[in-house]
């Protein structure tokens, strides 16, 4: 991305983020999912990091929350007469992000931080500040813009979880506590049920209810919402102005212990972590418990446990260097639609699929999302180049749920379904909401071609059988053989009955099969009348001295052969030659070569001895060989000048019999063909 493009994108991102944030924090409205907003903020922060000259003081990355409501009295966030901002935290979405945060902290301090870390839940509620004077609650305030909030004391007093008087005697005369007001899922469901019964619109999420309840001008409404509260820290004005704080609370953990001792509610799942490994383990533990936690969370928070070190690290932008919000993989994220391709399914139905800039959603990186049909594209209004919201709620297949039209540049392009089938060129007809190839054999033939391509002795992609190919076709993940090599683990992991490990295994197997011998490549193409042995004959005529070649080089060589050239090859007659020539002149087949080249297919040219010791010998294999595959055995024979055949006949020189040979052995014995066991065969070829 050029600086000019980045500047344009940054400006649009800032404008939209500010609009979404204002609606979220000031009007208590969610225009897009929280995780999608986080994704936009993350993209903006990334661009500003790459182009620091584009950072401005009014960027959303440099501010916290929204402006206080005019209906409430404004209050400054002060501790002992000094303003102490209520800051937000920067986000991390992976272990790599957390390690990068720690490295930045170490670089700033000039030394590794000591004292470990302190972890808590990243609660999805409303940040509030409580001020106690000699043990009595005297004020409650919202975060507002970080320096000035709203005085909501009367509403705060209605929350049973917040003590009006502290317990014990060792609390300071002036105590400023910060925490989160939350609403349990159970209470959220009750409130929405009542709203529906009244004919009102239900709330979008518990966070909106919590924020709206705290900001009610009538405390009776707040009291009826049954909010909860969890404290997460004690505010300080720094070592010079408040040295006693650092003596009494040398660590973040000490703050939690004191808060609990004074009767202020804290989260029981919090804990100290001695290392990043323990931080990651805590994150994984909380993720597994997420659904059982009574209120919504979207990750964990991680602080340097040493309070002096935390203070020394200071602030970057509007976030402390000494802390990070390590969020769960978002269930929604934003990305860009780079293209829309049409896949042809098992029944000939055409499915449009969005090819997107890779993005992590629900713990997996995805690059494809089905658009189902033309009606869905029209409903969403999606265009090529659009910024979209991708959702994977409930671990289902990713869906594009929203198009952020405000981020359009004018370069986006509309999409239309094709008039001709991408597979066989037949006219496309509309069938209800679906578009279908008019050829009745298209889907079945297409499916069989893919089965053939991945099977042995073609590309031999283990584990990728007909049922999985069918599933990939049904979901619109593939439309030709090249698409198989563009699949990611994220594309597969989201399918029913697949998990991350099984998806990674399949993708790893696919990637290992990107290199294939020329005979197997030619056989995989599924050219009519070209079987395994004919593919070997064709491969022997390939004129190239290199050990490896490309799909386009193969295409060029065979495309230029005339019918006469082809018939000069042994065992290739007019019918087979005509089939080969026709195949290499069909536009869709030539397009496949381009795609196979683009996805990185490499073709090995087997060494063939023109006058090897097996020249003139024909071998037939039967049964199972224990020390090598049948394909490997055939390649050894061919490398020494020999031929292979699938049937035993008068020209058969030897039968190689492995374990559990079939009827071929009986025929060989009847014809008097010499039979080699595996050990004798190995001596022949080694």
Q: How is this fold's topology laid out?
A:
Elements: H1 3-25, H2 34-50, E1 74-76, E2 78-79, E3 82-83, E4 91-92, H3 95-109, E5 117-123, E6 126-133, E7 136-142, E8 148-150, H4 153-156, E9 174-182, H5 185-197, H6 206-214, H7 219-223, E10 228-234, H8 243-248, H9 252-261, E11 271-273, H10 276-289, E12 297-304, H11 307-313, E13 315-316, E14 319-320, E15 323-327, E16 332-344, E17 349-361, E18 364-370, H12 374-380, E19 387-391, E20 399-403, E21 428-431, E22 434-437, H13 442-454, H14 466-474, H15 481-484, H16 489-493, H17 500-512, E23 515-517, H18 518-524, H19 532-540, E24 548-549, H20 551-559, H21 563-567, H22 574-583, H23 587-598, E25 602-604, E26 618-622, H24 630-639, E27 643-645, E28 654-657, H25 663-671, E29 675-676, H26 678-685
Parallel strand pairs: 4-15, 23-25, 26-27, 26-28, 28-29
Antiparallel strand pairs: 1-8, 2-3, 5-11, 5-12, 6-7, 6-9, 9-10, 12-15, 13-14, 16-17, 16-19, 17-18, 17-22, 19-20, 21-22, 24-25
Helix pairs in contact: 1-2, 18-19
């Amino acid at each position: 991305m050029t600086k000019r493009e980045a500047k344009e994108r940054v400006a649009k991102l800032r404008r939209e983020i500010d609009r979404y944030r204002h609606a979220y924090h000031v009007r208590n409205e969610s225009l897009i999912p929280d995780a999608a907003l986080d994704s936009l903020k993350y993209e903006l922060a990334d661009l500003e990091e790459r182009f620091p000259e584009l950072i401005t003081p009014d960027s959303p990355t440099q501010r916290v929350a929204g402006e206080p409501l005019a209906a409430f009295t404004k209050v400054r966030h002060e501790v002992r007469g000094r303003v102490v901002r209520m800051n937000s935290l920067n986000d991390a979405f992976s272990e790599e992000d957390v390690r990068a945060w720690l490295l930045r902290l170490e670089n700033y301090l000039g030394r590794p931080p000591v004292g470990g870390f302190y972890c808590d839940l990243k609660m999805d509620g409303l940040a509030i500040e409580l001020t106690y004077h000699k043990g009595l609650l005297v004020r409650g305030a919202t975060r507002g813009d970080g320096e000035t909030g709203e005085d909501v004391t009367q509403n705060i007093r209605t929350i049973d979880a917040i003590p009006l008087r502290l317990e014990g005697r060792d609390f300071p005369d002036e105590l400023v506590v910060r925490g989160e007001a939350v609403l349990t899922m159970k209470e959220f469901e009750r409130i929405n049920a009542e709203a529906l019964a009244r004919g009102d619109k239900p709330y979008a999420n518990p966070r909106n209810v919590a924020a709206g309840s705290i900001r009610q001008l009538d405390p009776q409404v707040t009291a009826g919402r049954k909010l909860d509260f969890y404290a997460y820290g004690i505010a300080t004005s720094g070592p010079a102005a408040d040295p006693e704080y650092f003596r009494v609370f040398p660590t973040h953990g000490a703050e939690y212990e004191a808060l609990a001792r004074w009767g202020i509610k804290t989260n029981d799942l919090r804990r100290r972590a001695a290392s990043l490994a323990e931080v990651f383990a805590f994150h994984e533990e909380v993720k597994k418990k997420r659904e059982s936690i009574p209120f919504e969370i979207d990750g964990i928070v991680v602080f340097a446990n040493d309070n002096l070190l935390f203070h020394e690290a200071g602030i970057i932008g509007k976030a402390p260097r000494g802390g990070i919000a390590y969020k769960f993989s978002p269930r929604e994220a934003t990305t860009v639609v780079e293209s829309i391709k049409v896949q042809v399914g098992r029944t000939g139905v055409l499915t449009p699929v969005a090819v997107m800039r890779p993005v992590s959603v629900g713990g997996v990186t995805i690059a494809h999302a089905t658009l189902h049909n033309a009606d869905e594209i029209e409903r969403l209004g999606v265009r090529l180049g659009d910024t979209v919201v991708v959702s994977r709620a409930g671990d289902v297949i990713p869906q594009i749920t929203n198009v952020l039209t405000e981020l359009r540049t004018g370069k986006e392009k509309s999409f239309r379904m094709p008039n001709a089938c991408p597979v066989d060129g037949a006219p496309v007809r509309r069938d209800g909401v679906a578009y279908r190839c008019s050829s009745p054999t298209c889907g079945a033939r297409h499916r069989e071609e893919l089965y053939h391509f991945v099977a042995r002795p073609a590309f031999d992609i283990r584990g990728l059988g007909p049922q999985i190919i069918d599933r990939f076709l049904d979901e619109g993940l593939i439309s030709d053989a090249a698409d198989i090599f563009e699949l990611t683990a994220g594309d597969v992991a989201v399918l029913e009955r697949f998990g991350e490990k099984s998806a990674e295994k399949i993708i790893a197997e696919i990637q290992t099969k990107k290199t294939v011998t020329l005979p197997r490549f030619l056989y995989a193409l599924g050219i009519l009348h070209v079987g395994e042995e004919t593919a070997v004959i064709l491969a022997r005529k390939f004129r190239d001295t290199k050990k490896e070649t490309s799909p386009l080089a193969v295409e060029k060589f065979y495309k230029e052969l005339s019918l006469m050239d082809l018939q000069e090859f042994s065992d290739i007659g007019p019918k087979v030659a005509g089939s080969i020539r026709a195949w290499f002149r069909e536009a869709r087949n030539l397009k496949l070569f381009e795609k196979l080249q683009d996805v990185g297919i490499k073709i090995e040219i087997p060494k063939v001895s023109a006058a090897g010791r097996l020249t003139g010998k024909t071998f037939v294999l039967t049964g199972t060989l224990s020390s090598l595959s049948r394909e490997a055995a055939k390649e050894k024979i061919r490398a020494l000048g020999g031929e292979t055949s699938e049937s035993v006949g008068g020209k058969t020189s030897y039968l190689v019999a492995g374990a559990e040979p079939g009827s071929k052995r009986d025929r060989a014995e009847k014809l008097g063909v010499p039979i080699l066991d595996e050990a004798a065969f190995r001596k022949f070829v080694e």
